[in-house]
Specification:
This protein is mainly α. It is built from 8 helices and 2 strands. The N and C termini lie far apart (43 Å). The model is unreliable at 212-220 (pLDDT under 50).
Length: 220
């Protein structure tokens, strides 16, 4: 269906939570029945299958011309509209990392220092997430290197699950095809620096003051 599996999983969990609490009725979402949501007496096989079938039914109602769950403008927009319609703050129980007014991503669920450190794109893997603990300054350096590598994979359209070989070979491939290895590395470095710069200004409330930071002020 074209959904990111992790993100849509977080979204479905939110819908099931609201179904279980009675804030949303099954009819409103185009499904029948409620999730098996009680940990007491939960049957790993039958209750998990029940929830899986409910999840599939919810997904079916997220697509098509007459989708009852309208994700055309994203899950956050849908949650806000539903909250207004129900006159209940349903969006408050929807756990996500926000990007702008509409963008969102479920949080990383790794208990590692890189994920817990401040980074310019929560939810992305623009940081080190191994289990070693480094001093803060060195961790920041390692995070920055990971961000540049992940950006390269993103921009070249390579799934990050292939990073074990791709991180080393892609610059060589680009050089063999186009002779632009140095340009690739430099442009990736500049892009990472600008993203980080804009995030810092946003946190400080200075984006307007610096005209959204075009990399002339704080990325010099």
């Amino acid at each position: 269906m074209g959904f990111d599996a992790i993100s849509i999983g977080g979204f479905l969990a939110w819908l099931m939570e609201e179904l279980d609490s009675g804030n949303i009725s099954p009819d409103e979402l185009g499904v029948k029945g409620l999730p098996a949501w009680d940990s007491e007496g939960f049957d790993t096989v039958s209750d998990s299958m029940h929830n899986a079938e409910l999840a599939c039914a919810l997904l079916d109602n997220c697509v098509g011309r007459e989708a009852k769950i309208d994700l055309s403008e994203g899950a956050r927009k849908y949650a806000r509209r539903l909250s207004r319609k129900k006159a209940k703050p349903l969006i408050n129980s929807f756990v996500y990392n926000a990007f702008g007014r509409k963008g969102w991503m479920v949080p990383n669920q790794y208990w590692t220092p890189g994920v817990l450190s401040p980074i310019p794109g929560d939810g992305r893997y623009y940081m080190y997430y191994g289990n070693q603990y480094f001093p803060p300054r060195y961790l920041g350096k390692v995070n920055a290197e990971r961000m540049k590598t992940e950006l390269m994979l993103d921009n070249l359209g390579v799934c990050r699950f292939h990073r074990a070989w791709a991180e080393e070979m892609l610059p060589q491939i680009i050089n063999e095809l186009y002779g632009l290895k140095s340009e690739l590395e430099l442009s990736t470095h500049i892009t990472a620096r600008r993203i980080n710069c804009r995030q810092c200004l946003c946190i400080l409330g200075k984006r307007k003051e610096h005209g959204l930071c075009d990399a002339k002020v704080c990325c010099r």
